[in-house]
Amino acid sequence: MQIEDQIYGSFELQPLFRDLIQTRLFQRLKGIHQGGAIIIADPSITLTRYEHSIGVMLLIKKLGGSLEEQVAGLLHDLSHTAFSHLVDYVLDYENEDYHEQIFAIYLSDPEIVEILNRYGLDYRQFLDLEQFSVLDYPMPSLCADRIDYTLRDLYHLKKISKEDMDWFVDGLIVQEGRIFVKSRRHANWFRIQFTYLNDSYFNGKESQQASQFMSKTVRHYYESGLISKADFGLNDLQFIEKIEGLSGQAIRSMYNQWLRNGKDKIDLKFKSRKVLPDVI
What we know:
By secondary structure, the protein is mainly alpha-helical. It has 15 helices and 4 strands. The strands form 2 sheets. The chain has a two-stranded antiparallel sheet. A two-stranded antiparallel ribbon has the order 3-4. The longest helix has 19 residues, at 184-202. The two termini are 35 Å apart.
């Protein structure tokens, strides 16, 4: 399977990765938007967990990570629910980790288990993602997940160029299972980009308003028993169709009406993040 990634270039994937990508659960990620509820406010933001998950796997491969860590990178977002972190706001998960708490359920899906077994792997090897330190490492240090979504989101938003990304990725190095950068310049550049992404995009007013609207709307239907936890396993479009069926209105009309009524006071608690890349 040949794959062309906008950040890392062209790769020939082994059959293991091809088969995992073609599973029902992984294909579902094509409908889970990376930016969550912001697509209600700006439908042009179309980046999904599908592209990001493949990107994390490719970055780990590019950095010399093991096959097992590449698999972990590919599957790490498998359990993300509709609108990414929306369920965290509805169910009051302050650490935004609902998808992590249900990860084992998704990873033990029979189709995933069968493919892993076919290639000599056990799904239980991947239950603890924290063991894969290139994929996942505590802030403020770097990890492949953090690097990919930062570069990919900012490139999609046209805030950085392909040349910027190539320069930064060339400045990465792995030692003792951790990602470092080769210069202070690389560290400062990424710190600035990540801060902008977190403060102006994830925690920006437009994103917060859309998340506030969606969380209040969904909480109403959830507490009324008209939406269940199982519905969070739908993709974003299916979830929108569920809400529109319950409300009898188009989601964009509901959102615009909510804004016109002045209901834009933000009372959600959004997770604040900072990075400080380690220099080798």
